[in-house]
Amino acid sequence: xxxxxxxxxxxxxxxxxxxxxxxxxxxxxxxxxxxxxxxxxxxxxxxxxxxxxxxxxxxxxxxxxxxxxxxxxxxxxxxxxxxxxxxxxxxxxxxxxxxxxxxxxxxxxxxxxxxxxxxxxxxxxxxxxxxxxxxxxxxxxxxxxxxxxxxxxxxxxxxxxxxxxxxxxxxxxxxxxxxxxxxxxxxxxxxxxxxxxxxxxxxxxxxxxxxxxxxxxxxxxxxxxxxxxxxxxxxxxxxxxxxxxxxxxxxxxxxxxxxxxxxxxxxxxxxxxxxxxxxxxxxxxxxxxxxxxxxxxxxxxxxxxxxxxxxxxxxxxxxxxxxxxxxxxxxxxxxxxxxxxxxxxxxxxxxxxxxxxxxxxxxxxxxxxxxxxxxxxxxxxxxxxxxxxxxxxxxxxxxxxxxxxxxxxx
Length: 410
Ligand SMILES: Cc1cc2nc3c(=O)[nH]c(=O)nc-3n(C[C@H](O)[C@H](O)[C@H](O)COP(=O)(O)OP(=O)(O)OC[C@H]3O[C@@H](n4cnc5c(N)ncnc54)[C@H](O)[C@@H]3O)c2cc1C
Description:
Blueprint: E1 8-12, H1 16-28, E2 33-37, H2 45-53, E3 58-59, H3 64-67, H4 75-84, H5 87-96, E4 101-103, E5 108-111, H6 116-129, E6 133-135, E7 140-145, E8 151-155, E9 160-163, E10 165-168, H7 174-180, E11 186-192, E12 194-197, E13 210-218, E14 224-231, E15 235-237, H8 239-247, H9 249-254, E16 258-264, H10 270-283, H11 299-308, H12 322-333, E17 335-340, E18 342-344, E19 350-355, E20 360-361, E21 366-367, E22 373-375, H13 389-409
Helix pairs in contact: 1-6, 1-13, 2-6, 4-13, 10-12
Bound molecules: flavin-adenine dinucleotide.
Flavin-adenine dinucleotide binds at residues 12-18, 37-40, 45-46, 49-51, 55-56, 139-140, 169-171, 173, 175-176, 347-350, 377-378, 388-391, 394.
């Protein structure tokens, strides 16, 4: 009797998507040799530094239709996958393996230990329990298909591996996109989730000041975002800025990160702001402007705004004339800043770009171009806003790929 050979499944990349895909596949296949191939000495390096070392595993958003709205690239394609595997499933997955997750008040989800190593240990232990081999310090330098629809993988040391299926989970490493360019179209990678560099008198000496809800508009374009804002030594950061960096990632790259934004510090319509300012003038005529910051604007920012429009800070509300009131309304609702470059947001950053989504079957994450090749995680042209959404895309796409490979080779 002929012995049936176990299929060999190679996962390129020992990150979140690679581990999750490998474990899912191993848990659903009868017999297989599963190998995670990682170029670095250690695996799961991004998980380790993620979320400021706490790993923001996912986001507590359990409606797939709402969840996809957080993905500037990939929202259409991820809808079906999120109906199959979404944040609720990630809670269950880690819970079943002894890791408890918690939801913070902004709906970000972290391990209860507040340590990314909890997630790393869980993934490594589960991979070992499934007898998944982990080959560190092995870089895949090329791959090509043989006549049996198997894959030949070449490593940096010249060694060849023959695999029945390959899951590419290489994140945003540009090298592999060059290799894959012979099978797939690649959208040029550009950074997303960055902060804005601005030098402006209004922001001087205000680092550390934050506001709970402001609105930002990109001059000349329809991109508008809302949310908390943080003033830093180099400019502006916070969720409203990061959201804008994600929605405008390609546009900002094309503009060489030089553009103009308008901030509405009040988050309100300008006629409403005018009405409130007039009410203040009539109700508090004897109070000095400087002593009554409005719209929850911190005192030092309020002072800088008044100085910038040259309103004498010692005047009272009764002394403010119509022209000054209009200038105050303008600076509160349309405060213009020139952005001159970007800085990395240390808690989370991603790359927009990668494998063109139309060339991937989102039921299985299989290539539509070549057989037995699958994709998961950031290697795809998918990226999200900050808040745990990027890992969720990695878990979901890896789950679909791992399940599909197991089904195909069982
Ligand atoms: C500082 C930082 C903090 C972050 N924090 C968060 C967070 O809290 N929450 C969140 O949702 N997202 C976060 N992200 C984004 C998130 O880390 C990524 O979206 C996620 O790691 C993507 O997972 P991946 O497995 O697709 O890719 P990666 O994690 O990048 O893994 C890919 C792996 O493939 C390996 N590889 C590449 N090419 C080869 C090759 N040719 N041969 C062998 N191996 C190869 C790489 O070395 C790497 O280990 C953060 C990102 C950064 C940079």
